[in-house]
Amino acid sequence: MKRSRFFSLIAMAVGLSVLAGTVSAGDVNVYSYRKPKLIDPMFAVFTQKTGIKVNSVYAKKGMLERLQQEGSNSPADLVFTVDIGRLKDIQNAGLTQAVQSDALARDIPAQFREPNGHWFGLTSRARIIVSSKDRVGASDIKSYEELTNSRWKGRICTRSGKHPYMVALTASMIVHHGSANAKAWLSGLKANLARKPQGNDRAQVKAIKEGVCDVAIINHYYMSKMLKDPKHSPGQAFACFPQPEGLTPPLPPRCAHEY
């Protein structure tokens, strides 16, 4: 089929394998940060409905570099990646082309797609605040900005600020408050850390359970997964979907204290 590349925002980033000897003119070839078990069922439905085979490449890291190295010889028709930063990196490298689609324009709101059709967001995730049910009140934290309050000194855990999840949150703070205020927020957050940033999102919830800290920042789906797994139960913790300060109209934060 005619080659066309467009890049889709999905919710996770993982793995890499080689697509050797599987390329066919009638196939659709996908480079993806999503594990095959998560996306192959969707592709199977597509194949069943259209008769078009989908070949997926599982890419843990180095997708941009691989696409650059392959150049015009790349078999990729479509890339599933995660995070707006990665999307922009691939687009800025000149590896995308605009796609005009009435269906995509109709089904995907304008704020979740590139204006000229270089990429389209498919799913989203929330970066939430989780807290100890015993040591933090349900109304004690209503926004990200409150994490800089001195009351939280030595009580916050988070993963590395260089991780895409945290980079995206920082970018959001810059958009809403400007670079100077975002920098001040990062400094305030750092001053309140209970330990040096480390581990993944699950590790932050575990640290709350173990009493290392009282508050942490994680992606919402990790909390859901841990609640379903007795071996990794978050214990006495609750989640809050904060509202950035200064937005109009203001929305109340959604907190669940029953976990």
Task: Give the N-terminus to C-terminus distance in angstroms.
Answer: 50 Å
So what's the overall shape? elongated
SSE series: EEHEHEHHEEEHHHEHEE
- The CATH architecture term of the largest domain is 3-Layer(aba) Sandwich
**Could you give the order of strands across the largest sheet?**
3-2-4-1-5
Walk me through this protein's architecture:
It is built from eight helices and ten strands. The protein has helices at 36-50, 63-70, 84-92, 102-107, 164-177, 179-191, 201-209, 220-228; strands spanning 6-10, 28-32, 54-58, 78-82, 119-121, 127-132, 156-157, 215-219, 237-241, 254-256. The protein has a five-stranded parallel β-sheet with strand order 3-2-4-1-5, sandwiched between helices. A five-stranded mixed β-sheet has the order 7-8-6-9-10. Strand 2, helix 1 and strand 3 (54-58) form a beta-alpha-beta unit. The chain starts with 5 loop residues before the first strand and ends with a strand. Mean pLDDT is 80; it is low at 1-23, 244-253 and 255-259.
Describe, in short, the structure shown.
The chain has helices spanning 36-50, 63-70, 84-92, 102-107, 164-177, 179-191, 201-209, 220-228, and strands at residues 6-10, 28-32, 54-58, 78-82, 119-121, 127-132, 156-157, 215-219, 237-241, 254-256. With 259 residues, it is of the alpha/beta class. α5 (164-177) packs across α6 (179-191).
